[in-house]
UniProtKB/TrEMBL annotation:
Its main location: membrane. Belongs to the major facilitator superfamily. Nitrate/nitrite porter (TC 2.A.1.8) family. It is found in: Membrane. Signal peptide: none annotated. Coiled coil: none annotated. The chain crosses the membrane at residues 30-55, 67-84, 96-116, 122-144, 156-182, 188-210, 231-254, 274-294, 306-324, 336-356, 393-413, 425-443. Pfam families: MFS_1. It comes from the Bacteria. Keywords: Membrane, Transmembrane, Transmembrane helix. The lineage of its organism: Bacteria, Bacillati, Actinomycetota, Actinomycetes, Mycobacteriales. It is a multi-pass membrane protein. This is Nitrate/nitrite transporter.
Length: 463
């Protein structure tokens, strides 16, 4: 008899049941939920790879057109995160994970068909970019599902594994693209898609065989409505736009900026694509790893301080980029090697600092509502439930809103290249934005730190 994939009574806080086998059930669901999120992130970021296979001489698309493709995919992924965060409760974590993996077969097959027929107009590509946005929604569904399986004392670790594993989908697909470019050349983009068709099918099958639905898992719409009136909801969302938005926006754009710079240095389109791919994966990889360290450091010295330091680093990195790009604009002839080194150092530093900011901003969320809960005059149980519900709702909301920062990154770069032929104007805009985010962090969370009683602070640090 096949086992049932529906769990009628699940209480992760029951330590006896947890030790008797529930920990293994939760781990199994964490693994496959993370795999699904990872592959979803890869498909969401697939255009960061595909643009390297689309020379303008063959497909007719300008740099502005390619940045628009990235912005479209990012916009769709951000918009889908809120409904995806509710979907696992409505349809079941197992059911939705299977669906979310298999639906990504549609844009992956469509990309293969589009790139096999150069000369088509831009709108089919934009439609396909919208469909790849379903992969961006996987983050919210996966985080919500993992959150339901794990006890409060282990949520920090489980959610960090889930989020970090998902983010690593970006550099992995770029490494796959690099392997294809190095072995088959820039005329064989279908190999990238073919590899991910296998990954998607395996993910859907694995989720169907090994995951479970929680019968009593229900979405808390009351908390989602309640956070709208909280000023910290909007401040943290803005900070997450600047951190995660930068990570995902530059993940889409980094390879193309490098490719354009290599072409400006006198390389052929094929050489520029290969050299850009050799470097582009490094930024998202380091940014994904830095996210974990950002959360750990925030546990020790406070999320506000770490976030402020991260914005300081992002300001310095974007200042380096602005200086390098300005000098390049005033330099006639091919892009110099020293200029290329400056671009790479500046962008990689931005990835690392935005990754640290990703972790520290998410660590701030439970601290904010834990501090607020002590002023409500509630009983201990009700106070904890309020803090937990509000924190969970804001995690989903901030994750959705933060992705829109990636839209702004790509639209700003697109307009900058259209008007001036370089990224200089966009980089100066990013620099000003990071200064504003740093000032906001200092005013709200550093100048007057959140006051949390010592026992609660210790519990947050161990989560």
């Amino acid at each position: 008899m096949p086992r049932s994939h529906v769990i009628a009574d699940w209480d992760p806080e029951d330590t006896v049941a947890w030790a008797a086998g529930n920990d293994k059930v939760a781990r199994r669901n964490l693994i496959w939920s993370t795999v699904a999120e990872h592959v979803g992130f890869s498909i969401w970021a697939i255009w960061s790879v595909m643009v390297l296979f689309m020379p303008e001489s063959v497909y007719g698309f300008t740099a502005g057109d390619k940045f628009l493709l990235a912005a479209t995919a990012t916009l769709a992924g951000g918009a889908l995160r809120i409904p995806y965060s509710l979907a696992t409760a409505a349809f079941g974590g197992r059911n939705w994970t299977v669906f979310s993996a298999l639906i990504l077969l549609i844009p992956t097959v469509a990309i293969m068909g589009l790139l096999a027929h150069p000369g088509l107009p831009l709108w089919p590509y934009l439609l396909c970019a919208l469909l790849t946005g379903f992969g961006g929604g996987n983050f919210a569904a996966s985080m919500t599902n993992v959150n339901a399986f794990y006890p409060h004392r282990l949520k920090g670790w489980a959610l960090a594994v889930n989020a970090g594993g998902g983010n690593l989908g970006v550099p992995l697909i770029q490494l796959v693209g690099l392997a294809v470019l190095a072995t088959a050349g820039n005329r064989q983009p279908h190999w990238v898609c073919a590899i991910y068709l296998v990954f998607l099918a395996a993910t859907g099958l694995g989720a169907a065989l090994f995951m479970d639905n929680l019968e009593k898992h229900r979405a808390d719409l009351t908390a989602m409505r309640s956070i709208i009136s909280e000023i910290d909801t909007w401040i943290i969302a803005l900070l997450y736009i600047a951190t995660f938005g930068s990570f995902i926006g530059f993940s889409f754009a980094f390879g193309q900026v490098l490719q354009l710079s290599f072409v400006g240095g006198g390389q052929s389109a094929a050489q520029a694509s290969l050299h850009a791919a050799q470097i582009a994966f490094l930024g998202p990889l380091l940014g994904s790893v830095a996210r974990i360290f950002g959360g750990r450091i925030a546990d020790r010295i406070g999320g506000g301080r770490v976030t402020l330091a991260a914005f300081g680093g992002m300001f310095a990195a974007s200042g380096l980029l602005a200086g390098v790009s300005t000098l390049d604009d005033h330099h006639s002839g091919p892009t110099a090697g020293a200029t290329m080194v400056g671009y790479v150092i500046g962008f990689v530093a931005l990835f690392i600092m935005s990754g640290i900011g990703n972790g520290s901003v998410y660590k701030m969320i439970p601290s904010v509502f834990e501090a607020h809960s002590h002023a409500l005059g509630l009983g201990e149980s009700a106070r904890r439930n309020w803090s937990r519900a509000m924190s969970g709702a804001l995690i989903g909301f901030a994750g959705a809103i933060g992705a829109f920062g990636g839209v702004g990154i790509n639209l700003a770069l697109r307009q900058s290249y259209l008007t001036s032929g370089s990224a200089t104007t966009a980089i100066w805009i990013f620099l000003v934005g990071y200064v504003g985010a740093a000032v906001l962090t200092w005013l709200r969370y550093v100048r007057r730190p959140l006051l949390i009683p010592l026992p609660a602070r210790a519990a947050l640090a161990s989560a």
